[in-house]
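Q: What residues go here?
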């Protein structure tokens, strides 16, 4: 027993077996991938992505124009004090009393009390004004303020016409009560009355000069009721036509560009009331200077008091999809007749029938990038080779692929790789194009495209 107790036991130490830690391994892989990605991103060429959005471009030029009308400065037949029968900007007929001349000023301060004629509006005029306001409320969207000025002018004209008859009756009553010998003078023609003269009344498109645009030398005289005049001095201005023109000075480059584009009409915005109108346009060359002539045939009364108008010529006003100029490229494509396009087998994919050396035809899917009104189809040069013979479906006719034509477009990267989409450019600014929206092979709103297409190849994988 004692020997058993003293017997030594040998104990061996074994190394523990390590098991593979899957979590640690996956973490290492992801970590290495992130490091490699960061290094490639820092050292590689970064591709900027642009999201296509709807937009517009307005190309306009602002000018101060000289207004020319068919008008005459009417002079007084006799000297004295002038009392007007008409309100400014009133339309009158030939033979209508315009003003009266008296030796002494007439007391018109109490004309309302001395007249039996009521100055209140009749029911017809009131109804017309209410109808104009209702039409404005129904048609106005609240974002464009130019209709407000139209409404203002309509109401002003209605009030002026309504009070003209009242004013004439009141002035007749004042003349009768004055006991003076008064001479009433009539209009010699139909027209619109204005109470200002500036000496430019005889200007025409054939007689204006560059000096007429110098506003530092321009003077206008306002004509007022009860002013004293001598025989032969102006008493009112009579505008006899709705036709009027605005002459704007142009640079030589602008004039030549507009003549080259054969512009015969232009959209015009008038700064005074933000009104937009269309005008006939022509270029006038005179004494080495160029001028643009804007001819209007309506709305003259709105600007009857103006000799100079600030106007904007809206040469381009296009809406569509707005893209940077740097994204636009030009690529060459093969063009084939549309009748050679077919669908293959059970697939709905479009393609062509290619003839091999043995005369057999096999279907080859192709990507179509555009079609023309002439029946041409644009296909990629990567899907078929030059000299490939195509067979017309259900026919023995063949066509050899040879001709190429360019298309203007961008690289669409919605799918993660570069796909060519054609664009139709409508107008441009310094940095952007407005391109047509809704084309079968074009862009759509919110598409993603390469902002700088110079270094991109078709089908190149792009990480957004």
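A:
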């Amino acid at each position: 027993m004692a020997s058993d107790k003293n017997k030594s036991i040998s104990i061996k130490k074994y190394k523990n077996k390590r098991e593979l830690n899957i979590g640690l391994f996956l973490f290492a892989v992801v970590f290495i991938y992130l490091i490699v990605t960061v290094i490639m991103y820092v050292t590689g060429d970064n591709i900027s992505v642009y999201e296509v959005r709807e937009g517009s471009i307005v190309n306009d030029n602002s000018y101060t124009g000289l207004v020319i009308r068919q008008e005459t400065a009417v002079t007084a037949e006799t000297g004295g004090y002038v009392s007007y029968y008409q309100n400014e900007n009133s339309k009158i007929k030939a033979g209508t009393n315009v003003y009266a001349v008296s030796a002494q000023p007439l007391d018109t301060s109490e004309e309302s009390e001395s007249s039996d004629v009521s100055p209140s509006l009749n029911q017809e005029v009131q109804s017309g004004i209410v109808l104009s306001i209702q039409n404005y409320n129904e048609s106005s969207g609240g974002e464009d303020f130019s209709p407000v000025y139209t409404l203002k002018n309509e109401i002003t004209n209605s009030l002026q016409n309504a009070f003209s008859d009242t004013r004439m009756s009141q002035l007749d009553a004042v003349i009768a009560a004055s006991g003076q010998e008064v001479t009433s003078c009539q209009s010699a023609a139909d027209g619109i009355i204005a109470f200002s003269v500036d000496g430019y009344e005889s200007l025409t498109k054939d007689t204006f000069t560059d000096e007429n645009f110098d506003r530092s030398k321009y003077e206008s005289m306002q004509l007022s009721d009860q002013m004293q005049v001598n025989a032969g001095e102006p008493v009112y201005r009579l505008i006899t036509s709705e036709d009027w023109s605005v002459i704007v000075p142009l640079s030589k480059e602008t004039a030549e560009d507009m003549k080259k584009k054969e512009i015969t009409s232009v959209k015009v915005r008038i700064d005074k009331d933000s009104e937009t109108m269309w005008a006939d346009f022509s270029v006038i060359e005179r004494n080495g200077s160029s001028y643009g002539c804007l001819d209007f045939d309506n709305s003259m009364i709105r600007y009857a008091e103006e000799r100079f108008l600030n106007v904007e010529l809206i040469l381009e006003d296009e809406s569509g999809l707005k893209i940077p100029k740097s994204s636009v490229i030009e690529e060459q494509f093969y063009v084939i007749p549309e009748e050679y396009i077919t669908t293959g087998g059970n697939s709905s994919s479009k393609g062509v029938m290619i003839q091999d050396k043995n005369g057999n035809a096999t279907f080859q899917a192709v990507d179509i990038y555009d079609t023309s009104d002439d029946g041409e189809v644009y296909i990629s040069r990567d899907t078929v080779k030059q000299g490939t013979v195509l067979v017309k479906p259900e026919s023995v006719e063949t066509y050899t692929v040879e001709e190429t034509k360019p298309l203007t477009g961008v690289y669409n990267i919605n799918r993660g790789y570069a796909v060519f989409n054609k664009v139709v450019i409508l107008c441009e600014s310094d940095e952007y194009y407005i391109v047509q929206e809704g084309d079968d092979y074009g862009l759509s709103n919110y598409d993603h495209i390469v902002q700088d297409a110079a270094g991109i190849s078709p089908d190149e994988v792009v990480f957004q």
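A: Context that may help when evaluating the design: The radius of gyration is 41 Å. Residues 328-455 form one domain.
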